[in-house]
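Students often ask why we bother encoding 3D structure as a string. The short answer is that it lets us treat folding as translation between two languages. Here is a chain of 289 residues written in the first language.
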Amino acid sequence: MVAMKLRLSLLQEVVGHVKRQHAVLISANSMSNLFHTRLVSLAASNTKPSEATCKSQKLMLELGLIAPSSPGCFHYLPSTVRSLTKLNQLIDKAMVAVNAQKIEVPILSSGELWKTSGRWMDMGAELFRLKDRHEADYCLGATHEEAVTKLVASQGVGSYKSLPLRLYQITKKFRDERKARYGLLRGKEFYMKDMYTFDASEEAARETYEAVCEAYACLLRQIQVDYVKVLGTTGNIGGSESHEFHFPAAIGEDRLYVCERYILSQTNFALTMYCIVSRHCLSSLISTN
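And here it is in the second language, the structure alphabet:
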């Protein structure tokens, strides 16, 4: 099973691109009737200036695109919902191109299922845990490997001819962040596109992985978002390989060391698919630092 995730908090940085490329003409009258589209100050939004830690968060608050609800949680207002809907449609189109099928898994997940996989404890404090009135354990889904695997196992896939099976969803996820910040980029509640695939062999799984990676790259090029594709850690999800698509920005928590010597591909945009620090250059980097 290959699990691939495209965290939709990227919406905060790409909303302008999506609007320009796929905007629907709206009359001035209908725009004036949209809820909370007027300019508001940070004070009026009940957000302390020190809490708005990046330019995009400040702009989204001041332009009435989002409104704070509680630490790490925001109301998405009409203009943002329009953009999110259009972005979801673009993602759906990209997934259809790789023969993926859209599903929706319950946000509330069985604790017993997570205990069986061992991730009930491995997820640590970031996992929102709760009990129902019968004292049964549940959690708010941060990811859904367990749920989708159980779903497929219970229904079966027929024969190997039914593979690959590629299932994805675009739903809200929850993580108990130690310190929520950067608006939608680091919140306790956020939208995420996650995909779970089942293949007949490791070779077939790798073909799926490459196909979906390319689908992500095509989508980002379509909405004209510069990105860097880098090797990532599999973390508690497991697996042998992982990549992340990073949006170059002045804010954030990751520092990327880009090896220009091993460029995989290049388009007209500033940054595209680079290999992050090849083994050859890694040794040089370590020796010089």
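Translate back mentally: Confidence is low (pLDDT under 50) at residues 1-6, 21-29, 262-289. Keep this in mind for the problem set.
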